[in-house]
Structures are given as C-alpha cells and as structure tokens.
Amino acid sequence: MENGLIQGMAGGILMNLPAIIGLIILIGLAALLIVPWRIRLSGATDHQGGLSYAASLDWALGAVRVAGAAGQPWRLYIVGLPVAHFPGLSKAGKKKKERKSSPLAFARIIKRYHRTMIGVLDRIAGAAFLRGHLLGRIGLPDPADTAQLALLCRWMELSSKHFNLKLDWVYDQEIVQIQADLSATVIIGYLLLTAGLLLLDRQTRMMLRSLRHA
Questions:
Q1: What is the reported pLDDT for 140?
Q2: Which of 33, 42, 62, 140 has its CA 20 to 30 A from that of 151?
Q3: In 3D, which of 42, 40, 41 has the Cα closest to residue 58?
Q4: Do 132 and 163 contact (CB within 8 A), yes or no?
C-alpha cells in the first residue's frame, strides 16, 4: 500500500516535472526583471593614461555580488561567500578603422532633435536612478571627435538632475583626465518598459535613425 502510494506520488511529480521546471524559470526571470541591480563605479585617469577604478554590481540586496578594482581580479560572491574570480580588464587590441561621421551632420542632428535628445537622456537616466559626478578634461586625437563628444555632453549637462557632469574640452592637445563617482539602481523590467515607450515616439525613432546614418 505504502509502496503504491510512493510510486503514485513519484509518477505524479515526474508527469508535472516540465510544468515545475517552467514555473521555476518564470519565477527566476520575473525576479531578474523586478529585483533591482545596484551598480557602483568610481575611478580616475591621469595625464599619463593610467587608470584606477573600483566597481561593483550587486543583486537582491547583495545576495549576488560582483566586484573588482584596477590591478585585481573580479570576484563573484553569493550570500557573501566568494565562489569564483575572473581576470581584470586588459588593454583592448587595435580597432578596425571605422567610417567617420560628419561633425557638421552630427551638430545638425543635435540642433534639430535637441529637445527629443534631452527628453530621452532624462528618461533613461531617471529610469536607471543615475547619481554621481563626472569631472575632468578631455582632448581626443581628432578635434572633430572632441567636438562631437562635447556637443553631446553639453546636452547631457542640461538634462541631468541628479548627475553632475563638468568637463573641459581641449582641441589642441590629446589628453584624458577624468574623475568619476557613479551609482545606478537598475530595475531591468522598468528600464525595458521605459525604452519601449520611448521607441513608440516617432521623433525618437527619427532621431535614432538620423544618428545611425550621420
């Protein structure tokens, strides 16, 4: 009698196993979309190109955490216990030559869609609960690239409410000196919803299409 009952329960579990696995996957996906991811980054560059940084990403109030720093491996923690480590960031190899965008075309796009761009940046920064500051001096090898980046960052300065962006632009010298302290709380479901609503707007789609072809 008992053996038959146990066999019946085991058979019922096996029959419902796909449904149980599916339910577990759905609950896991829902948790990933709803439970916040907290991101923290602080770092600085010097005039010789040196980089120092510390960064962390945690989920579910630190139940899962990834943290790393310059010159040190990245470590994965689960409920506070280190379970794995990964090598730190290395210098990137040579990049393939890409098509240069026109600074004039880029400036025209920003002038035409500046309100839309400010709205998009503000919505995305708000959805990611972005906080912190980015300070420094930037001069890229190509002054045209410096001008493009400066235009974009100036509009970001106007749209930022909780993010302090203060950069000096240098057009006759190649220099990157940055000090950053940033934090964000990302709810993936909310961020995807925000991005989807933005893409429903015709002006946003036109702006993205223009930037892609600039």
A1: 86
A2: 42
A3: 40
A4: yes
Instruction: Give the model's confidence band at 92: pLDDT under 50 very low, under 70 low, under 90 confident, else very high.
Output: very low
Answer whether residue 192 shows pLDDT above 60.
yes
- CB count within 10 Å of CB 204 equals 19
Q: Residues in the chain, how many?
A: 214
Residue 77 tokens read as 């923690």
**214/106 Cα distance (integer angstroms):** 6
Cα–Cα distance measured from residue 137 to residue 208, given in angstroms and rounded to the nearest whole number: 28
Q: Which two tokens stand for residue 103?
A: 């600074």
* Cβ neighbours around 3 below 10 Å, total: 7
The amino acid sitting at 45 is: T
SS3 35: coil
Q: How many domains does the chain have?
A: 1
Q: Is 19 exposed, middle or buried (0-12, 13-18, 19+ CB in 10 A)?
A: exposed
Residue 35 lies in a domain: no
Share of the chain above pLDDT 70, in %: 80
Q: Which domain holds residue 129?
A: 100-214
pLDDT at residue 93, as a whole number: 47
Model-level pTM?
A: 0.73
Between CA 204 and CA 120 the distance in angstroms is 8
Q: Buried (b) or exposed (e) across 105-142, using 16+ Cβ within 10 A?
A: ebeebbeebbebbebbbebebebbbbbbebebebbbee
- Residue 96 is classified by DSSP as P
> Position 36: which residue type?
P
